[in-house]
Design a protein that fits this description.
By secondary structure, this protein is α/β, with parallel strands linked by helices. The chain has helices at about 5-15, 20, 30-40, 60-70, 100-115, 120-135, 170-175, 180-185, 205-215, 240-255, 265-270, 275-280, 300-310, 330-335, 355-365, 375-385, 400-405; strands at about 50-55, 75-80, 90-95, 95, 140-145, 160-165, 195-200, 220, 285-290, 290-295, 320-325, 345, 370-375, 395. The protein contains 17 helices and 14 strands.
C-alpha cells in the first residue's frame, strides 16, 4: 500500500466523518479546531479569505469565485467538501489538488498531536488546508463551509467577506427544523465589521440576516437586488447557476478595490471557464450522448426542484432516473417531488450510510415511483443504458455519492 493510501485509511477510519457515518461525527463546538490551529501556529491568520455558506449553490459559487481570481492572476486557494473522486479535491491551489506527499507529510508530522486532541476527519482536513494555504502563501483562499456555519470547523477564519448563498431545508437534525433556525446557523459566519453578501432575498430569512449583521456592525447586501454585469456566460450548465453567478459577482464587486487585477475581462473569463480552471464536477454534468446522460449532485428539496426545472427545459422522449440516497435523511419530500412518469433504477451507493436499494424502492413506491432495485450504481446505470432509446434522457442523482461513482 502506498504511503498516501495508508494516510487516507488513517484519516477515514480512525476519525468520525460526517459524510460517511453521519451524526456521530458532528461536534457542536470549535474547540478542537482552535486547539489544532494554535499548535500549528495559527495558519488561518496568514492569508486573506472569502467564506461561503448556504444550503445550495455554495460549492458552485466558491468555484466561480476561485476561477475569477485565478483568471485575474492571483494565487488562489480553494477549500470545498465533500470530494467526489479523490480526497485531494477538497484542497486546491489554482485548480490543482494538494500533492499526495503534502497530505502524507502533514499527517505524519502531526500524528502525535491528533492522538491528544482527537480531531474529527473534518477538523483535520480544515487544518491541513489552512496549513497548506499559509505555507504556499496564497493571495486569497475561497473557503466553503462544510455544514451550517456557526459551528463549522471553517468558522475560525476572519474573512474579507462572508457569503451566504441561500437557505433551504437540509441537515435539520443538526441545524434546526425551521428555515429561520437554519438561517441563524448559517448567519454564524457573519463576523464583526466584516461585510456580508446574501444570495437570495427571502422574507423569512432576510430579517434574521439583517439582525445578525446589525449586531456585528457588518454591512449587508442582497445579491439578487442588484445587477453587476450583463450578458455573462458561464460554463457551469443548469439554469440554477444564474443565481450563483449573481452571488459570485456581488462578492467580487465588493472586494474589487482590494484586488486591482479583477478587471471586467478577468471576471468574464473566470466565469466562462470555471470547470477548466477549477476542475469542478457533478453540476448538471453531461456524461453521455444518445441517450443524453446527465448527473447532478442536488440532493435536498431545493436542489431537486432546481433539477426538475432544468429537466422541464431539456428535450427528451422518456426519462430514466438512476437514483440512490443515504439512510439518515428524510427523503419523503424529495420522493414526493420526483416525476411519476419516469422509469426508476434504484441503487445503493458504496458507503456505510447508504440507504439499501430495496428500502428505497419500497419508500418510492408509496409515491408512485416505479422501477427495479440494483445493489450498485454501476449496475443501475448499465440497466438504464440498455433500456433507453437514443432520444431518451438518463438522469443520475439523489445523492452526491451516487454522482461520485459515475463522473
Amino acid at each position: 500500500m502506498s504511503p498516501y493510501q495508508s494516510t487516507l485509511d488513517y484519516l477515514f477510519s480512525q476519525l468520525p466523518m460526517y459524510q460517511r457515518i453521519g451524526a456521530s461525527a458532528y461536534k457542536p463546538n470549535l474547540d478542537n479546531t482552535i486547539k489544532l490551529l494554535t499548535e500549528l501556529g495559527n495558519p488561518e491568520t496568514k492569508f486573506k479569505s472569502i467564506h461561503v455558506a448556504g444550503t445550495n449553490g455554495k460549492g458552485s459559487t466558491s468555484h466561480m469565485l476561485a476561477s475569477v481570481f485565478q483568471a485575474a492572476g492571483y494565487k488562489t486557494g480553494l477549500y470545498t467538501s465533500p470530494h467526489l473522486k479523490d480526497f485531494r479535491e477538497r484542497v486546491k491551489i489554482n485548480g490543482i489538488c494538494i500533492p499526495e506527499q503534502n497530505v502524507v507529510d502533514f499527517v505524519e508530522e502531526n500524528r502525535a498531536l491528533f492522538e491528544v486532541i482527537k480531531p474529527s476527519f473534518f477538523e483535520m482536513t480544515v487544518a491541513l488546508a489552512f496549513d497548506y494555504f499559509a505555507k504556499e502563501q496564497v493571495d486569497i483562499a475561497i473557503v466553503e463551509v462544510g455544514m451550517g456555519g456557526r459551528l463549522d470547523s471553517t468558522n475560525v477564519i476572519t474573512p474579507l467577506l462572508s457569503v451566504i448563498t441561500n437557505i433551504g431545508m437540509d441537515h435539520m437534525q443538526f441545524l434546526g427544523n425551521t428555515i429561520e433556525k437554519i438561517a441563524a446557523e448559517k448567519a454564524g459566519i457573519i463576523k464583526p465589521e466584516t461585510p456580508v453578501i446574501i444570495g437570495e432575498t427571502n422574507e423569512k430569512t432576510a430579517p434574521v440576516f439583517l439582525e445578525i449583521a446589525k449586531q456585528n456592525h457588518s454591512e449587508i447586501s442582497f445579491a439578487d437586488q442588484h445587477i453587476f454585469l450583463e450578458n455573462v456566460t458561464c460554463d457551469l450548465l443548469g439554469i440554477y447557476q444564474e443565481k450563483n453567478i449573481q452571488t459570485a459577482l456581488a462578492a467580487i464587486f465588493r472586494v474589487k478595490n482590494l484586488f486591482p487585477n479583477l478587471s471586467e475581462e478577468a471576471i468574464r473569463e473566470g466565469l466562462a471557464n470555471v470547470v477548466k480552471n477549477t476542475g469542478l464536477l457533478g453540476r448538471w454534468q453531461i456524461i453521455g450522448e444518445k441517450p443524453l446522460i446527465v448527473c447532478d449532485t442536488g440532493h435536498n428539496e431545493d436542489g431537486i426542484k432546481q433539477i426538475l426545472q432544468q429537466l422541464s427545459q431539456t428535450p427528451y422522449r422518456r426519462l430514466h432516473t438512476v437514483f440512490g440516497a443515504v439512510n439518515d435523511k428524510d427523503i419523503t419530500t424529495i420522493l414526493s417531488l420526483l416525476p411519476k412518469d419516469a422509469v426508476y433504477y434504484f441503487c445503493k451507493p458504496n458507503l456505510p450510510r447508504a440507504l439499501n436499494e430495496k428500502d428505497l424502492q419500497q419508500q418510492a413506491q408509496k409515491f408512485g415511483l416505479l422501477g427495479d432495485a440494483f445493489p450498485t450504481v454501476a449496475e443501475a446505470l448499465e440497466a438504464a443504458k440498455k433500456s433507453a432509446d437514443s432520444d431518451d434522457l438518463i438522469f443520475v442523482g439523489g445523492s452526491t455519492f451516487v454522482v461520485a461513482e459515475v463522473v
